Amino acid sequence: MGRxxxxxxxxxxxxxxxMAKAFTRIGKDIVMAVKEGGPNPDANSRLRAVxxxxxxxxxxxxxxxxxxxxATDKDTANYKEVLFEGYAPHGIAILIETATxxxxxxxxxxxxxxxxxxxxxxxxxxxxxxxxxxxxxxxxSTGIDPEELELELIDFGAEEVFEDEDGILIYAPFGSFGAIxxxxxxxxxxxxxxxxxRIPQVTKAxxxxxxxxxxxxLEKIEEDDDVQNVYHxxxx
Length: 236
Prior knowledge:
- This protein is of the alpha+beta class.
- It contains eight helices and eight strands.
- The strands form two sheets. The chain has a four-stranded antiparallel β-sheet.
- It is globular.
């Protein structure tokens, strides 16, 4: 198995556990998708993808509809996607994806977390190059051969296809998202969920005590309402 498989396995039980946080994240994704491409999922591939993720996270349909309606209101604040970079203790690189309607607030909060936990907030580009920006899709495994599917999707950018208890996972570079989404839809293959992840190119093993230091910072960052995703180079 490749790096995507190992990355997925390491993160599986960790970062998507809080239901309320998941719903907040999806709600922001809906607002950004609607502001960008309109409220009709048939004509808005980004919104279509977010709605699939909402279903996978068991977000009630009425919540999704309410978020779409709210996003069409011109008075609803738009969210800007901002990337933050830095180092946790023991040389662990951290990459933070945020969706914020107040950048000054988010910058101040993220900086305070690094300062309180003996980390260092970095400048733009200081750690982003250590991560591969990927897209992923989860589809049902029934009646589909992962190896055969991988060969068929290589031309559309797929780099790694594997099966786990949640279905078949397809990983590709960030820029291949649209081509793979379109091909799966053309084949009438149900997309259970999709998204983007940043996979560390190299990870670093730490002692249990050092892991605790890094986890303290990660938990503070992940609890922030503006934070969508957190990635790091610590070996899971």
